[in-house]
Amino acid sequence: MPDSVIGQPLDRVDGKAKVTGAARYAGDTQATGRLAFGVIVTSTIGQGTISGTDTAAAKRAPGVLMVMTHENAPRQAAFKHAGEDRHARPKPQLTERVVHHHGEPVALVVAETFEQANAAARMVKVSCKAEPGLYDFNDAKRLARTPREIEESKAHSKVGDFDKGFAQGAVKIDATYSTPYQNHNPMEPPASVAEWSGEKLTIHSAVQLVHSAHQSIADTLKIPPRNVEVVSEYIGGGFGGKLPVYADAILAALAARELKRPVKVVMTRQQMFEMAAHRAATLQRVRLAADGEGKLTAIAHEVWSQSARMDEYTESAASSTRAIYAAPNRLTRHLIVPLDLPVADSMRAPGDAVGQLAVEQAMDELADKLNLDPLELRLRNEPAEDPEKNIPFSTRSLVACLKDGAERFGWSHRARTPGTMKDGQWLVGMGMATAIRPNFRRPASARVHMDERRHLTVEMDMTDVGTGSYTIFAQVAAELLEVPVEDVTVQLGHSGYPKTPGSGGSFGAASCTSALREACIALKAKLDAGQGPGNLSAEGKSEPGDEYKKFSQYSYGANFAEVAVDATTGEVRLRRMLGVFDAGRILNAKTARSQLIGGMIWGVSSALHEAGIVDPRFGSFVNNDLAGYHVPVHADIPASLDAVMLAGFDDKSSPLGSKGVGELGICGAGAAIANAVFNACGVRVRDYPITPDKILNGFLRPNLAQQR
Amino acid sequence: MKAFTYERPADTAAAVRAVARPGAKFLGGGTNLLDLMKVEVETPTHLVDVTRLPLSDIDDAPNGGLRIGATVTNSELSNDKRVRERFPMLSLALLNGASGQLRNQATTAGNLLQRTRCYYFYDPSKPCNKRVPGSGCSALNGYNRIHAVLGGSEACIAVHPSDMAVAMAALDAEVEVQSISGTRLLKIADLHRLPGTSPQQETNLAAGELITAVVLPTPPGGGQVYRKVRDRASYAFALVSVAALVEVKDDHITAARIALGGVAPKPWRALDAERLLVGQAVNDDAFAAAGEAAVAGAQGHGHNDFKIVLAARTVARALADAAAQRKG
């Protein structure tokens, strides 16, 4: 389709609004009434009971309008542990004396100005009876149990006889990897502005899932959903961190109702580390066995991941291992480690981002032991069908990604022997890794309106978290209804618009464009029947059929990295990186590439920089700001970092042929770097992130370098 | 943040008078103080903004030295041609610090007086002897990967975070100070204190004293290096940093200077290691021995054990690089 508008690398249709400041984010909302400001007070213990609160000084402080604690918080619905949609559950605030984790909200102070609220918030004294809690992930294996809130078939899988297959292998790897906590730190913190008009609440909140948030907020406040409007037009980064509804939204809504005026509540950066979700720390044991030719005879991936004791979440790090390579004997297992820490939840490519840090480094270790090119090892284990479900893949271009990437990157120049390529003080090496990410689609609906000038307006309760949703919807509607893209206005992020699954799991584009396509077809039928243009509307709905049962659906990629390791200090610097990806049909080559390179850079972060550190004495995250919590800066990312998208079309995924792309970039990216580090200097670090101290340890103790 | 009052005095005499008020503090570029005020680790009731005092010049001093005004920004100082030519390690140290935006804002005196980035110091809900004397040190048995291996005490193992001050220590800088009773000069080595039993006392400045300038003496001969080891390529505090100078004649070392950052509560001058080098032939063994001497007596606290060997290796490497610059 050479003339297709879909796929063109168009600039973001919302780009100008964003760079000029015209785009209003939740915290920018100008309420109709006089805005009051709420500041949240948080628990300084990790576990215990509130024994008393002293709010007298705060109440007397200048400008203070209200101090809310568990003693006077309005009644709310009870928290529900299980739920079909974990993000639509009630999220009551300040309703209990029990403290579940460090940094949990214990009070809200509302004042005329932010500064007044902030000053008074520090005057609130909350006395607690601290109790011992479980905070230390080092105790993972002792504390582990089977997840209760996911089906056993999702937690564990078995094919063939792993023990037998492992015993039969000529070459084996049995290695344990660990990945740290990662804390959600999008540029925009969770923020909400709530305003009531009689019984009706309008809340501007930074949420990825408008429909789930709508239900959660209405249910928490025990009011009918029709009395709530959730607005989330622009979001300054989501990455899974804005899937849940947090205290900012609920407390803003409660305070605004009590005070009968609009209230804004924004989490501080420090609060985000404990009040917003994080990615669970994991421990992962990977066992691989291969025959002398490098064909896998057995693969096992066992995962221990932290979960909040108060709210279970399983980091599904081994789930894609079920489809990544062929092997007759297979085993995957997920156990959770309940700790009294803040709630773990989804972060960009949940499961896969950390799972492939382990599996793809293990494959590199196996290749090294086999004395086989690690890329060749992947090629020799390419499955003809889904190796656990025994159903065909919808499409699978992993081999093409691997070969194309190797060619473009110059993989053949990689030194076979680690530590042999030098550039002055630098030890230089190359590494690669596979990327795999399940493809999801959810039910969605959309509305299209055409006016007499043939201008289209698209409406969905979908969000654009910075991914490019506004732009691809404009492209799809423009193409299907044969109007210029400039004649399409896309309106998103209002709970009154047709229901969609929102932004999450990379399912947004395929789900929503399928619904939008139906709406456009319906509108076109009306046009063809002689109606309009002008005052013409059509709605469309779409949901996935049984293609998910008949076909195994994943997006794929291959990551290649070249790093330099300082021979004196163990510092690692990325020199260049390339990812080649297959995500079906690309809807916008520019925004998709941005998603992919963003994911790859997060992979760099996971490999080399990022870790949330828990102090097991307090149950607190200690490095809770962006000076202490490291992500790559510009100087860490070379100009030579690129993503290439192979042409594709997956009709089993969606009628437009696209698959999820947002989360694919991070998958395997960090492992490619870890493998490049090994190739550069011969040090194998299995405990992410790979910081200079760990490399140095490998330099000093070469015999131990192969151990954790 | 607590409410505070603010004034901008016209001259240094007015500034030192203004700060005599109880609860008053000088405000420089604000890149650290304002952060600390937001989390209420610092709670001044009155700010005396010194950034517009007439202290923004870099003047020539006798014999090639420089007198750097207290309000000269880190950017200006790093880019000054005289600094780059005569004191390259200082320019490099500055450029290795913070980010472009912060360097545009941060001042020379403010950089010297910035406070530690210890996580527990920043969290008022946790014990910290520096913040609340007698409450205990959370870092000693806590997460101490970024903490001191030299010069710490049972009361505090926080490190001084400056890069600039490390180079100034190696360059034997002096600090010019003004108070109501007059002016005085103190050696930079005497500006910061070790924590001992009173980590809340970070400097030997008396209450109300204002740093007006830093004086760099005659530029030393030899090659200069500033090497900062960090977890990412920019915008990170040093795990270990080394300011090194080596002067070589006839393949022998005639002078050496070594100062370390990221390892101690103050810029750490390694005088024993320097003495060890003088008279030695230029070779890697001599530099390695100096590296070991520089960390003599160092003590790790668990997460930061690696700093000892990292510092020794980095000193050796920096010395070799400095020697290579002006060999012969």
Average pLDDT rating of chain A: 96
Spatial separation of the terminal alpha carbons of chain A = 52 Å
Largest interface: A-B, 38 and 36 residues
Q: Whole-Å distance between the termini of chain B?
A: 57 Å
Can you identify the CATH class of the largest domain in chain A? Alpha Beta
Tell me the number of helical segments of chain B per DSSP (H or I, 4 or more residues long). Answer: 11
Uncertain spans of chain A: 704-708
- Helix/strand-derived category of chain B reads alpha+beta
Runs of chain B in which pLDDT lies below 50 for 5 or more consecutive residues are: none
Over all CA atoms, what is the radius of gyration of chain B? 19 Å
* Oligomerization status of the protein chains: heterodimer
Model description:
Chain A contains 19 helices and 28 strands. Chain A starts with 14 loop residues before the first helix and ends in an 8-residue tail after the last helix. Mean pLDDT of chain A is 96; it is low at 704-708. In chain A, 26% of the residues lie in helices and 25% in strands. In chain A, the strands form seven sheets. In chain A, strands 3-5-1-13-10-11-12 form a seven-stranded mixed β-sheet. A five-stranded mixed β-sheet of chain A has the order 7-17-16-15-8, sandwiched between helices. Chain A has a five-stranded mixed β-sheet with strand order 18-19-24-25-28, with helices on both faces. In chain A, a hairpin with a 5-residue loop joins strand 24 and strand 25 (572-582). Chain A has three domains: 15-22 and 442-543, Aldehyde oxidase/xanthine dehydrogenase, molybdopterin binding domain (Aldehyde Oxidoreductase, domain 4, 2-Layer Sandwich); 31-132 and 185-276, Aldehyde oxidase/xanthine dehydrogenase, molybdopterin binding domain (Aldehyde Oxidoreductase, domain 4, 2-Layer Sandwich), CATH 3.30.365.10; 143-182 and 279-439 and 550-707, Aldehyde oxidase/xanthine dehydrogenase, molybdopterin binding domain (Aldehyde Oxidoreductase, domain 4, 2-Layer Sandwich), CATH 3.30.365. Chain B has 328 residues and is α+β, with helices and mostly antiparallel strands. Chain B is 27% helix and 20% strand. Chain B is built from eleven helices and twelve strands. In chain B, a hairpin with a 5-residue loop joins strand 4 and strand 5. The A-B interface holds A 44, 62, 115, 118-119, 122, 270, 425, 568-571, 573, 608-609, 613, 615, 617-618, 620, 622-625, 627-628, 630, 632-636, 691-693, 696-697, 700 and B 1-3, 39-40, 99, 117, 119-120, 122-123, 125-126, 138, 141-143, 145, 229-237, 239-240, 306, 309-310, 313-314, 316-317.
